[in-house]
Each structure stands twice: as structure tokens, then as C-alpha cells.
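Backbone-to-sequence.
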């Protein structure tokens, strides 16, 4: 199982970063290899909000190296039909297409998927998709990962078609991070009030942040995302 899941040679071991596929869904990418150490080197402030991801995604590449272009494209298309049909029968799995937005696919939408020639391999036709499963309240990382692994292992291919599954994974946050801006600001204010009550009137507390900036988002756990505004707080003893 794991050898199939590590089919791609690219290992994304960098800290997770967030990017938008569409206005109301933020996708964060991390490494399945190093997921146990996620969050160890994140440059985030003490005050932040943690939210559980909505969905877990893994990139799936379908490719064929049959010599004739028409034949290999047909092999890719036939395998794509198999993938979409299998997902349609599985309530835990959705196939999505990434472009200007993240589009969930069903078998009737196969015409919206473009099969292209591989940019670095001659005589290879390919299509890239995402396999998506929801992150449930009681899920651990292995629960979500194994659901997708089981789905991939049950797939059948046509001709010389191969399935390659990325070692990186993606987490989605529906609605985006900006919806939590007011909550983050209030959390910062609450922490400052605590500091003032703790240190007393003989100390000044200075807070610096750029509230015009959009909130930031990063991965701080295998299935968790942290939302924050960068800020600093300084405490200074008042002059007598």
C-alpha cells in the first residue's frame, strides 16, 4: 500500500503553505512523509486560532506511454472513467479537478477534463486530479490517508496506463481564513488584557500589528490549521 502511495519522486518536506483554488476554499499543502513533525518550526505568534480541516486531498496523476497518441489518450480517458465511476459508488471519496477553481467531478463531467501531453516526458499523455475525503470529527491522519489508499488500490487501469499518487497531501478550509479575522483580533485583545491585569499599572504594554493585512493560515498538525495575524507585544516598566 505505502509503496503505491509514494509513487512520485518529489518529496515536499517544506513547511505547509496556503493557497486559494477558489474564493471560499483555501488549500494547504504538506508532506505525508514528515507529517508527524508538522508544526515544529512554524513561525506563528502565541495567539492563534486552530481549526480542523474540512477535507483531505491527495493528487492523482493518470498517465500512459503507449506509442500512438490517440491510443494512449483513449487509455487515459478509459481509466479516468473507471476512477470517476468508482468514486461515484463510494460515499467517502470525491474526485476534484484543479484549475482556476477546485471542481468536484462526477461521471457525467468527464468531458470537462482535458488530457494533455506530459511537459517533461515524450510520448506520454496525462491528466492530474485530486482524490478528496472529508475529515470527520473522530478521524486521525491514518484514517483519512487509508481511505484514499484503499480507494486507489481498488482501481483498475486500461492498457499501459499508470496511476501515480503524490507523497504530499492537501487540507481544505471552506470559507477561507478571513472569516476568522474578528475572532483572531479578539483573541489578541483578550491576551493583552490578561497581560495588563497580571503586570499591573506600573507597566506599559505596546502592541504592534498591521490590521489592514489579511489573516495568515498554516498547517500546525496533521489535520489542523492555525489562523493568525502576525503581531508583537512589548512590556515596559513605567518611569517613576
Amino acid at each position: 500500500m505505502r509503496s503505491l502511495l509514494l509513487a512520485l519522486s518529489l518529496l515536499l518536506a517544506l513547511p505547509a503553505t496556503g493557497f486559494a483554488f477558489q474564493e471560499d476554499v483555501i488549500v494547504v499543502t504538506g508532506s505525508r512523509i514528515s507529517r508527524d513533525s508538522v508544526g515544529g518550526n512554524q513561525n506563528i505568534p502565541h495567539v492563534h486560532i486552530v481549526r480542523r480541516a474540512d477535507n483531505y486531498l491527495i493528487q492523482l496523476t493518470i498517465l500512459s506511454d503507449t506509442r500512438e497518441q490517440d491510443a494512449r489518450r483513449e487509455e487515459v480517458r478509459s481509466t479516468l472513467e473507471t476512477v470517476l465511476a468508482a468514486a461515484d459508488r463510494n460515499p467517502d471519496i470525491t474526485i476534484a479537478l484543479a484549475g482556476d477553481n477546485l471542481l468536484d467531478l462526477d461521471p457525467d463531467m468527464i468531458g470537462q477534463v482535458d488530457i494533455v501531453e506530459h511537459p517533461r516526458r515524450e510520448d506520454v499523455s496525462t491528466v492530474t486530479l485530486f482524490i478528496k475525503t472529508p475529515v470527520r470529527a473522530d478521524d486521525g491522519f491514518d484514517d483519512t490517508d487509508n481511505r484514499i489508499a484503499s480507494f486507489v488500490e481498488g482501481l483498475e487501469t486500461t492498457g499501459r496506463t499508470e496511476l501515480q499518487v503524490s507523497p504530499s497531501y492537501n487540507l481544505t478550509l471552506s470559507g477561507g481564513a478571513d472569516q476568522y479575522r474578528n475572532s483572531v483580533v479578539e483573541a489578541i485583545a483578550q491576551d493583552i488584557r490578561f497581560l495588563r491585569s497580571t503586570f499591573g499599572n506600573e507597566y506599559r504594554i505596546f502592541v504592534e500589528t498591521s490590521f489592514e493585512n489579511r489573516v495568515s493560515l498554516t498547517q500546525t498538525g496533521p489535520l489542523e490549521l492555525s489562523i493568525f495575524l502576525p503581531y508583537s507585544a512589548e512590556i515596559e516598566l513605567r518611569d517613576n
